[in-house]
Design goal:
- The protein is mainly α.
- It has one domain.
- 56% of the residues lie in helices and 5% in strands.
- It has a two-stranded parallel sheet with strand order 1-2.
- The chain starts with a helix and ends in a 34-residue tail after the last helix.
- The relative contact order is 0.24.
Length: 236
C-alpha cells in the first residue's frame, strides 16, 4: 500500500496545489502574474464581451496542457526526483521497523519492544515532516508556474471570446458540486482551442515524449489512491 502511495506522490502534490489555485491565482494583463489569496480570478470583466454564446474552459487543463505548462511541470517533477527518492527511502526504513515489530514483537522483552516503538514513532514523525515540507515546496513552485502562464493566457481567452461571439465563459476545472457548472457539453468547450492558440503564440515546442506512453495534452490530476502510512499499534 505504501509503495503505491509513494508512486502517486507527485500526482497527489499536484492535486493539492491545483485545488487551491482557482481560488488564489489572479491573472494580470502583463507577461507575469503573481498568485494572490483572493476571490476566484477572471480574465477580465464581462463588460467587454457583447456576444450571446456561453462557452466553457477547463482553466487547469488549459494552463497545464500548453507546451509551456507541460515543459515546466516536467522540469519541476524532475527537480523533485531526489526528494521523492529520499521520501521513498524514509518510508522503506519505516516499513522495515513496523514489520520487525509485527514479527518480533511477541518475543521481545518490554524494554526492547518499547525501544522499537520509539524508533517507529521517530521515523514516522521524520517522514511526515519531510512529506509535508515537500508538498508545500512543490505546491508553491507549481502555483508560480500556473500564475505565470495564466497571466499570459487570460488576454487570449478574452480575445477568443470576443472573436467568436461569447458573452460568458465558465470554468469547468472542478466538477459539480465543487464547481459551479452542473453539466457542459463538448460543443461549448474552448479549452483545446485556447491551448492551440497559446502554443502558436508562445512558439514553445511540445516536450519530447517520456516513458512508454505519451501524456494527454490537457491532463486532469488524479487523487492519490492511498494515504500516508500510520504507525502499527501492537495488541496489548
Amino acid at each position: 500500500m505504501t509503495s503505491k502511495f509513494l508512486r502517486f506522490f507527485l500526482t497527489a502534490v499536484v492535486l493539492f496545489a491545483i485545488s487551491a489555485l482557482a481560488q488564489t491565482a489572479t491573472p494580470a494583463s502583463g507577461s507575469t502574474a503573481a498568485p494572490a489569496a483572493s476571490a476566484p480570478a477572471a480574465p477580465t470583466t464581462t463588460a467587454s464581451l457583447t456576444g450571446t454564446k456561453v462557452g466553457a474552459i477547463n482553466i487547469e487543463g488549459a494552463v497545464f496542457g500548453t507546451n509551456e505548462g507541460r515543459r515546466d511541470m516536467e522540469a519541476l517533477q524532475k527537480k523533485f526526483e531526489p526528494k521523492n527518492s529520499e521520501l521513498k527511502g524514509l518510508n522503506e526504513e519505516l516499513e522495515a521497523l513496523k514489520k520487525q515489530l509485527n514479527t518480533q514483537g511477541p518475543s521481545l522483552n518490554p524494554d526492547a519492544e518499547a525501544n522499537l516503538k520509539k524508533q517507529i514513532e521517530g521515523k514516522q514523525k521524520t517522514f511526515d515532516r519531510a512529506m509535508q515540507d515537500a508538498q508545500e515546496d512543490f505546491g508553491s513552485q507549481q502555483q508560480d508556474v500556473f500564475g505565470r502562464i495564466l497571466g499570459k493566457m487570460a488576454p487570449m481567452i478574452v480575445k477568443y471570446a470576443q472573436d467568436n461571439g461569447y458573452g460568458m465563459i465558465v470554468d469547468t476545472s472542478k466538477p459539480w458540486p465543487q464547481g459551479p457548472v452542473l453539466i457542459a457539453g463538448a460543443g461549448v468547450d474552448i479549452t483545446q482551442a485556447v491551448v492551440d492558440a497559446y502554443n502558436a503564440q508562445s512558439a514553445v515546442p511540445a516536450p519530447a515524449p517520456t516513458g512508454t506512453a505519451a501524456k494527454p495534452a490537457a491532463p486532469k490530476p488524479a487523487a492519490p489512491k492511498t494515504t500516508a502510512p500510520q504507525t502499527t499499534q501492537p495488541k496489548q
